[in-house]
């Protein structure tokens, strides 16, 4: 029952929605630049549009003892086999039974399929301050209820919003009133403009009894029909009537257009969850820019019902800095001349099975049927040929005993002494077949040598200052012998323009790979004490692809744009030839 | 050979004392190379995820094996107590994967005096090239275009001159 007494107050005070965004937002289940570009180039235009859902709930039940619930909503898609696949989560709101969540969940609205959305609402009892919402374990939270709806139903309602009743089975036969959940849908506009502002206030009113107010700002967008959609929230500054907040970064998706009116409310934070309104003002982004340039301040207004006129307060909002930036997307970089270079490494360890037996993953079928590795190479090869313009791939094998009798963990697949490149997918296939005939399967399964080789290539290109990004594809049957060595090699390579995509063939247990993929938020740590700078690994199990759950393109390219952008953005590398910002 | 290091101690995560996350303590970081050390300002918001963005330039002799980053917190009485320390081996920012002028983003595990894990510190390090060499910055500046004059790569713009030495055995 963790924090059921007061809730995680520090978590409740943190900024939501407006702080410097990570390159990949966690709720972006819909759009992947790289995948869309791949399909569009083949004339397959996607029949969907991106939708952003804002959630709010009312009359939730109270599961905490001396305070109110800290609710968070999780959205799932119900798949064809009935399983739920998580699409996204909102943030956690402190002490509220009527939460209005700020974090939006994006989903692609596919016109021709029936998309069943399932929402689960939880009361978060564990700490969530500075913890990515994605990593909170749902099993540890209290369940508050669930609701189901169909996406097309939401889209066809007049305001594109729907209110659902929450239901849930708590075991006791009595059906309790669990409250309602409202879903508001809006189309997303892919836009590159990002606005960063430094806001501060002076002379705010004191709303607390024994100390000063703890003010924070909440910025909302006014949509048609006076619907208010909260967009972001600054952090709480304790005990200060002249607060200076950390810079707020808003994307055009969040503020609509530069002329859309934004409602800026200044509230006094209370741990009970009932934040008192200090004052509010309505300004568009263009007006805020003007305020900054002319060094003016705007007074807050307190809505007053008795006089019919709003009371103008002494408290003022000042914009210290206003910067408009362009955030380039993955496609912008690729189309400007950034090269993606792929490298392939194939597993030649004995765990694959003797190539002469039909059950082996390396089986050389006389009838010409492709074995698991060949299938994987062909499917993956389609994607990498598309993005690697010169179609020359360094190809290596590992874990096999070569002609000179030694077991090598990074031998050239084309068995040439110098030059490890093959041309095209057919090059990889022929090199693989001939290597299979000449190389004896041995062991153990080590990735560290091929990762080091790839890292070496990537670092050499750095010294030539050319805009290149490298992707190492490792096709393996799964069980790693030297986890620590592999982690060390990956951590050493984590600061380079390199991504590692591990493709798993066969049916083994791939939990080790999930650890390397670090999607749950635990950064890889090497044995020397160095921690990985960023997550550079993406794991794709081929059996998921073959069972039809996800296309190979989708699975392979899922994390690549995000990993690429995390590298270029933190170094302020712009697309080739783009003007410096 | 003395080089100049530009170190930016950016932030730390998950700072713990006695295995518990710290709350409301103001922390600061100190970078130490040999005997010289520089300290950052206090992080005002306190807590276990401070952001310092403390940039400093320090000279580093070629013989230095590692630099150390220490994180302290200030008690109410004004005393500074150490939370933990991380050691950055020089090979991590000089050597095989990174050359001079490359902006290295590195993160390290902090360990306290008992050897327990007590957080992660994020730094970025640039080894400044010598002023006598032509300073072509390898930090990919936003205005760099890929169509620069090629060929003299790896030598940072200098022309290499040398006299071939032949050895003919008769």
Automatic annotation (TrEMBL), chain A:
Residues 341-560 form the VWFA domain. The keyword Magnesium does not apply. Keywords: Repeat. Pfam families: C2, Copine. InterPro entries: C2_dom, C2_domain_sf, C2B_Copine, Copine, Copine_C, VWF_A, vWFA_dom_sf. Gene3D superfamilies: C2 domain. PROSITE patterns: C2, VWFA. Residues 31-164, 177-302 form the C2 domain. Belongs to the copine family. This is Protein BONZAI 3.
UniProtKB/TrEMBL annotation, chain B:
CDD domains: C2_SRC2_like. SUPFAM superfamilies: C2 domain (Calcium/lipid-binding domain, CaLB). Residues 1-105 form the C2 domain. Pfam families: C2. SMART domains: C2. This is C2 domain-containing protein. It comes from Brassica napus (Rape).
């Amino acid at each position: 029952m963790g924090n059921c007494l007061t809730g995680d107050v520090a978590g409740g005070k943190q900024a939501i929605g407006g702080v410097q965004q990570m390159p990949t937002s966690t709720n972006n289940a819909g759009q992947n630049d790289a995948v869309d570009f791949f399909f569009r180039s083949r004339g397959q235009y996607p029949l969907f549009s991106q939708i952003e859902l804002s959630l709010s709930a009312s009359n939730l039940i109270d599961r905490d003892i001396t305070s109110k619930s800290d609710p968070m909503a999780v959205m799932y898609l119900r798949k064809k086999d009935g399983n739920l696949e998580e699409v996204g989560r909102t943030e956690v709101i402190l002490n509220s039974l009527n939460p209005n969540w700020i974090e939006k969940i994006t989903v692609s609205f596919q016109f021709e399929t029936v998309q069943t959305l399932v929402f689960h609402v939880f009361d978060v009892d564990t700490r969530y301050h500075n913890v990515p919402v994605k990593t909170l374990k749902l099993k540890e939270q209290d369940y508050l209820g669930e609701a189901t709806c169909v996406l097309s139903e939401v889209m066809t309602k007049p305001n594109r919003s729907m209110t659902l009743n929450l239901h849930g089975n708590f075991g006791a036969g009595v059906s309790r009133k669990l409250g309602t959940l409202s879903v508001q849908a809006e189309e997303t506009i892919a836009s590159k403009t990002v606005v960063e502002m430094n806001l501060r206030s002076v002379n705010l009113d004191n709303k607390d009894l024994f100390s000063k107010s703890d003010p924070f700002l909440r910025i909302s967008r006014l949509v048609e029909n006076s619907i208010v959609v909260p967009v972001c929230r600054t952090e709480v500054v304790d005990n200060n009537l002249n607060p200076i907040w950390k810079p707020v970064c808003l994307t055009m998706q969040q503020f609509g257009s530069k002329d859309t009116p934004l409602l800026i409310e200044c509230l006094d934070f209370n741990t009970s969850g009932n934040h008192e309104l200090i004052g509010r003002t309505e300004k568009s982004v263009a007006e805020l820019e003007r305020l900054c340039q002319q060094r003016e301040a705007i007074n807050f207004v307190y809505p007053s019902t008795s006089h019919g006129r709003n009371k103008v307060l002494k408290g003022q909002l000042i914009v210290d800095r206003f910067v408009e930036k362009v955030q380039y997307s993955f496609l912008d970089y690729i189309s400007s001349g950034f090269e993606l270079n792929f490298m392939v490494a194939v597993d030649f360890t004995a765990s694959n099975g003797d190539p002469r037996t039909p059950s082996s993953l390396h089986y050389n079928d006389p009838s010409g049927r492709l074995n698991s590795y060949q299938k994987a190479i062909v499917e993956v090869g389609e994607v990498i040929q598309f993005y690697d313009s010169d179609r020359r791939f360094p190809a290596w094998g590992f874990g096999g005993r070569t002609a000179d009798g030694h077991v090598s963990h990074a031998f050239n697949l084309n068995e040439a002494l110098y030059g490890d490149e093959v041309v095209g997918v057919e090059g990889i296939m022929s090199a693989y077949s001939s290597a299979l005939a000449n190389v004896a399967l041995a062991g153990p399964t080590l990735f560290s040598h091929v990762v080091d080789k790839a890292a070496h290539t990537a670092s050499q290109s750095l010294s030539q200052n050319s805009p290149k990004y490298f992707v190492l594809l490792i096709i393996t049957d799964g069980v790693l012998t030297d986890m620590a060595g592999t982690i060390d090699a990956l951590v050493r390579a984590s600061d380079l323009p390199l991504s590692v995509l591990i493709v798993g063939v066969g049916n083994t247990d791939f939990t080790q790979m999930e650890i390397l993929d670090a999607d749950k938020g635990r950064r890889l740590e090497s044995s020397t004490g160095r921690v990985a700078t960023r997550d550079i690994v993406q794991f794709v199990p081929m059996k998921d692809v073959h069972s039809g759950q996800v296309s190979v393109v989708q699975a392979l390219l899922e994390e690549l744009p995000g990993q690429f952008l995390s590298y270029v953005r933190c170094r302020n590398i712009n697309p080739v030839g783009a003007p410096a910002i | 050979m003395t080089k100049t290091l530009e170190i930016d101690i950016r932030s730390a995560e998950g700072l713990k004392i006695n295995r518990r996350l710290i709350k409301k303590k103001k922390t600061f970081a100190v970078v130490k190379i040999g005997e010289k050390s520089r300290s950052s300002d206090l992080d005002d918001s306190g807590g276990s995820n401070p952001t310092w963005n403390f940039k400093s330039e320090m000279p580093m002799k070629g013989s230095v094996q590692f630099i150390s980053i220490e994180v302290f917190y200030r008690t109410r009485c004004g005393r500074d107590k150490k939370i933990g320390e991380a050691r950055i081996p020089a090979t991590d920012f000089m050597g095989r994967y990174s050359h001079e002028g490359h902006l290295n983003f590195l993160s390290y595990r902090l360990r306290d005096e008992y050897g327990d894990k007590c957080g992660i510190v994020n730094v970025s390090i640039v080894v400044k090239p010598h002023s006598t060499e032509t300073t072509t910055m390898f930090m990919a500046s936003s205005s760099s275009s890929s169509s620069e004059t090629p060929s003299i790569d790896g030598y940072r713009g200098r022309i290499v001159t040398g006299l071939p030495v032949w050895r003919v055995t008769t």
